[in-house]
Amino acid sequence: MKVEHDWQAHCEAEALAYSGAIQPHGALIRLDAKLCVSHVSAQFDAYSPYSAAALLGRPLPKELADVLAHSLDKLSAEPGSRCELVSVSLADDSRVDIVIMQSNDGIIIELMPHTDTVISAPQYSVQMNTPQNSAQALLLHQETAVLIQQLTGFNRVMIYAFRDDGDGDVLAEARDGEVYGSYLGLRFPGSDIPRIARVLYLKNPWRLIPDSQAQPVPLLGQQQSPPDLTWSDLRSVSPVHLAYLNNMGVRASLSLPIVVAHELWGLIACHHAEPRTLSLQVLRAASRNARHYSLAIAAWQAASRMRFMDSLSSRFKAMRMMLLRHGSILTAAAEIAPILLEQLNACGLAIRFGDDWVHVGDVPAFNVLEMLDDWFERDCPEVIYSSDNLILTHPYTGPLTVAGALALKLRTRSGDSVHVWLYRKELCSQVEWGGNPNKPVEYQDGAFNIAPRRSFDKWVDNRKGYSLGWHNEDRIVALHLRHLFMEIYA
Ligand code: BLA
Questions:
Q1: Which ligand 1 atom is nearest residue 189's CA?
Q2: Shared domain check, 269 and 172
Q3: From CA 404, how far away is CA 468, in angstroms rounded?
Q4: pTM exceeds 0.85
Q5: How far away, in angstroms, is 216 Cα from ligand 1 center?
Q6: Per the CB 3.0–4.6 Å rule, which of 31, 115, 167, 218 could disulfide with 107?
Q7: How far is the C-alpha of 152 from the C-alpha of 248, rounded, in Å?
Q8: Do 296 and 158 belong to one domain?
């Protein structure tokens, strides 16, 4: 079983965007609203003919300003707007790639050494057709993982998808012989990628960490306060995550966001055992493919959701007729039960109308049923409630004959409460985690420290006391049922 802890609040509090430092594979200049340099990374002269001290507090040197003028004009005022310049010559013979980003309160300019890369498009493409079913979706996940692996040369590439509860599953994996072990099919706890980090990945086209052991480079500024690096590619990495990569035996990592309906659906997570950096051209090609893949996944999800919504009224048409024929939901209960139990994969049904109860199939003992219902009536602010482990969510009930329940409530025209409960039996199942998800806190020097787990070997959790989980679609069905009951009784 996975346990939630207070340390998660600590993880969520890290000011990732205000680290005041960058990774050392490039250099950064920040311009303020007056287009003067407010911050610059130390050792700027390693990437350009200019020293950090010569830049601070001044407008950009003329030569750099000329090179960037067109891009700076093109940049929109919208935070996150960006321009990418490949192979720009500065004063000396060296060439750099430049990314310019509009930040909330300034402009970020990042320089990286340019390396020539040839990307032959046909070799690195997949027909991103919209999958029609889960088998086709799995094939698309696999093809995409292989494609990104070929394109980036990373040892292991995974399609990592978030679940409704925030944890995530590795749905597909492509790897070469250089890399230890497989994460295919394993689950990882949501806390491995805190929400603060997900917000950043949703906004940016990639997150590249070429060397998890490299020393960060501080930003020098005229003011003490660090600038907002939300949109910076080079932003230094959270120390907790560096420890995580280290514990995984990963030296370089790349994450490409998979965005569906404006939400982070998952990540294409890439690992390399040795330090590895990628040229801007390769990053752009990988990002383009990740966006095409996101669109295919989004279209598939939208089509499945539409089919599901369209099927709702036909699935309960017969039940509606029965309810109308009976007039009372209590007398209809025996007849509608098989439909409700089948549609919601439940083992028992209990219905309360005013002070009267009727039940069909496996339901908890009557005193327990009433205890839960009192709580639902008085203390639950939601009209739909679900739990896949009643003993965990309502420990006062004592042992139960069922493990999970979904409930909905409404009031009739005459003010009676109608509560409908559906129960699910315990389902003994196994979850294979990438390491024990319960051990992120370590006891060190007399204090508890937040530390990522040390082992990512498969850790099997025999789930006891849980029913089959109630998913989003079950809740949509419950909402539909509530509407249907309200239409008849309220
Ligand atoms: C970031 N955690 C990340 C990232 C991934 C993961 C993919 C994005 C950065 C990257 O590309 O490396 C986690 N990596 C995974 C998972 C898989 C994988 C699940 O390959 C599965 C296959 N991490 C912890 C704990 C904390 C934590 C306990 O384990 C909180 C204190 C934090 N993870 C954490 C932070 C980041 C992160 C802060 C952001 C790093 C950054 O962008 O600076």
A1: 19
A2: yes
A3: 8
A4: yes
A5: 18
A6: 31
A7: 20
A8: yes
Burial level of 246, CB count in 10 A (0-12/13-18/19+)? middle
Is the same domain home to 325 and 397?
A: yes
Cβ–Cβ < 8 Å for 435, 453: yes
Query: Given pLDDT bands bounded at 50, 70 and 90, which one contains residue 44?
Result: confident
Helical ranges in 344-416 per DSSP H:
366-379, 390-393
Give the number of other Cβ atoms within 10 Å of residue 472's Cβ.
10
283 near 208, Cβ under 8 Å?
Answer: yes
Q: Please, are residues 26 and 110 in contact by the beta-carbon 8 Å criterion? A: yes
Q: 343-360 b/e with 16+ CB inside 10 Å = b?
A: bbebbbbbbbbeeebbbb
Residue whose entry in the numeric block shows the structure tokens 């501080």: 218
Cα(248) to ligand 1 centroid in Å equals 11
Does 440 map to a domain?
Answer: no
Residues 181 and 266 placed together within one structural domain of the fold: yes
The number of C-alpha atoms within 13 Å of 294 and in the hemisphere containing its C-beta is 21
Looking at the structure, do residues 373 and 395 belong to the same domain, yes or no?
Answer: yes
Distance 265 CA to ligand 1 centre (A): 15
| CATH assignment at residue 46 | 3.30.450.20
Write the pLDDT tens digit of every residue in 88-146: 988 667 889 999 999 988 999 999 999 888 787 777 778 899 999 999 999 999 999 99
Residue at a domain's end among 57, 85, 113: 113
- Domain final position from 285, 307, 329: 307
Instruction: Give me the mean pLDDT over the 392-411 stretch.
Output: 94
Residue 328 structural domain: 316-428+466-489
**Residues 301 and 341 both lie in one domain:** no
User: At 470, which CATH number?
Assistant: 3.30.450.270
> Which atom, in ligand 1's list, is nearest to the CA of 451?
28
Helix (H, G, I), strand (E, B) or coil at 226: coil
- Same domain? For 137 and 246 the reply is yes
Do residue 290 and residue 323 come from a single domain?
no
**Mapping DSSP to helix (H, G, I), strand (E, B) and coil, where does residue 150 land?**
helix
Helix, coil or strand: residue 102: strand
Ligand 1 contact via 204 beta carbon (within 6 Å): no
